[in-house]
Design brief:
alpha/beta, 2 domains, 196 residues, two-stranded antiparallel sheet, 7 strands
C-alpha cells in the first residue's frame, strides 16, 4: 500500500485535500502542501508522524492549483533550504497547463498506486483510470448534447448517489460547476467526447 494521506482538513472538512509524507534518501519530502490556510493542519499532521516542517527537505508539486500548491511560497519563505520540485516534463506546463500529461500518459507509466490528492491511495490504478475515463467521456457527452450547468450538476450528483460514490465532501472537493466549466472549455477546443 502507498503512503498514508495527511488530511489537511480543507475548509474544516475531512477527506477533501491530502498531502503525503514520503521518505527519501535525502530526508522527508512532501507530495503537495495544500493551500496556505491549511498550514497549521499540515504542521500538526507532520508532528503526529514525528516530523517538523523544518525537517522536510523536498516539496514535490503535482500541479499549481492553489488548493494543492498555494502554501509553497509561504513554506519556502519560512524554510529557504526547502527544494521545490516539478518534473522536467511538467515544468513548462506551470506556465501553460493546456498540454498536460493525460489518462493515457498515466497508464503508460503503469503506476502501482495512485496517491489521490482528493483523497486517499488506490492500489488498483487500472480500474481507477478506466472509471475516470468512462465518467469524463459521459460528462463531456452531456455537455455536448446541451446540458445546462444546473442540469449537468444534478445529473452528476444523481450518478454519484446511484453508485454510492456521492458525499458532500466530494462536491466540496470538486464543485460540479467547476467540472462543467472545464469540460465545456475542453469540448469547445476539442469537439469530441471520448478523448483522454
Amino acid at each position: 500500500m502507498g503512503p498514508d494521506p495527511l488530511d489537511l482538513m480543507h475548509q474544516g472538512a475531512d477527506r477533501v485535500i491530502a498531502s503525503y509524507l514520503l521518505e527519501t534518501d535525502d530526508g522527508p519530502a512532501l507530495f503537495d502542501c495544500g493551500p496556505s490556510t491549511c498550514l497549521p493542519r499540515l504542521k500538526a499532521a507532520l508532528l503526529e508522524r514525528g516530523v517538523e516542517l523544518g525537517d522536510v527537505r523536498h516539496l514535490l508539486l503535482s500541479h499549481i492549483h492553489l488548493d494543492h500548491a498555494g502554501a509553497a511560497g509561504v513554506l519556502v519563505r519560512e524554510h529557504p533550504e526547502l527544494l521545490v520540485h516539478v518534473s522536467e516534463i511538467g515544468a513548462p506546463h506551470l506556465a501553460d497547463p493546456s498540454r498536460l500529461e493525460t489518462i493515457d500518459e498515466i497508464e503508460r507509466r503503469r503506476p502501482e498506486h495512485l496517491a489521490l490528492i482528493h483523497f486517499g491511495v488506490t492500489s488498483d490504478p487500472e480500474l481507477q483510470l478506466a472509471e475516470l475515463r468512462t465518467r469524463l467521456t459521459e460528462w463531456v457527452r452531456r455537455i455536448q448534447t446541451g446540458a445546462t450547468e444546473e442540469e449537468f450538476g444534478e445529473s452528476v450528483r444523481n450518478d454519484l448517489v446511484a453508485t454510492g460514490s456521492y458525499s458532500a465532501t466530494y462536491e466540496r472537493a470538486m464543485p460540479f460547476w467547476q467540472s462543467y466549466a472545464g469540460l465545456t472549455r475542453y469540448s469547445e477546443r476539442h469537439g469530441t467526447a471520448g478523448s483522454s
